[in-house]
Amino acid sequence: MELKVLDKKGAIKESRKVLESIFSRNYSGALVHQLVESYRANSRGGNRAQKNRSNVKFSTRKPWKQKGTGRARAGRASSPLWRSGGVTFPSSPTENFSKRMNKKMYKAAMQCIYSQLAREERLFIINEPSIAKPKTRELIQELKGYKGVKRLIISLEIGDMVELASRNVRDLKILASGRVDPLSLLNADFTYVSENALKNIEESLA
Q1: Which end of the chain has fewer CB atoms at under 10 Å, N or C?
Q2: 52 and 124 both lie in a single domain
Q3: How many CA atoms lie within 13 A of 188 on its CB side?
Q4: Is 119 in the same domain as 173?
Q5: Which segments of the chain are extended strands (E)?
Q6: Strands 123-126 and 12-17
Q7: Are residues 147 and 52 located together in one domain of the fold?
Q8: What are the pLDDT tens digits along the chain (206 aa)?
Q9: Whole-structure pTM value
């Protein structure tokens, strides 16, 4: 398997051979779906809360006596069966939504994504992006030759200048090779990876 190497103008300079095990794997939709679901679940935080019967502010007095009224038995007004009562199994901010995925499956799923990008010619090798000043205009000029509306650039390490300048560029995402996630890869129109970042990806997924 070979990936095309681009210069700063977006022209093809050469082709570089990459590992077949990572960039020539058959696509498995079920495996990739499991990876995406696991990633989204692990990114989710507890942001909702409901009250149980002990948190609801009601009197603890028994509403009426146990027998003789003809009505159903009732212990307290905070019962989940009553209107405005507590919730039986309430949501909590400490609720855990995480889903586990073993390393072997994670590597296989990421290999599927990279392989599909390579087959669709949406993955290219470029030089490390670098600018002298943290100016958005300079970064746009630096990346002008790379096509695509939604672009993902994978670098070994993101310099301070590039990080500051990229904040204001729409539909551009720059990630370090150790922090690449499946959603970013799937959502990007084109992915551009630097030489050093490619070596790191090959080492981590081999």
Answers
A1: C
A2: no
A3: 29
A4: yes
A5: 2-6, 12-17, 123-126, 151-155, 172-176, 190-194
A6: unpaired
A7: no
A8: 899 999 888 888 899 899 998 999 999 999 999 999 999 999 887 788 899 988 899 888 999 999 999 999 999 999 999 998 999 999 888 888 888 899 999 999 999 999 999 999 999 999 988 888 899 999 999 898 898 899 999 998 888 899 999 988 889 999 999 999 999 999 999 999 999 999 999 999 98
A9: 0.80
**Radius of gyration (C-alpha) of the chain in whole angstroms:** 27
Domain holding 122: CATH number?
3.40.1370.10
Q: 140 and 122 in one domain? A: yes
Q: Does one domain contain both 144 and 191?
A: yes
Position 133, amino acid: K
Biggest alpha carbon distance in the chain? 92
Residue 39 lies in a domain: no
Residue pair 189/120 in contact by the 8 Å Cβ criterion: no
Owning domain of residue 130: 2-28+101-205
Q: Whose structure tokens read 């799923």?
A: 109
Residue 124 to residue 128: CA distance in whole angstroms = 12
Alpha-carbon distances of 168 from 11, 38, 155, 165, 171, rounded to whole Å: 26, 30, 18, 7, 9
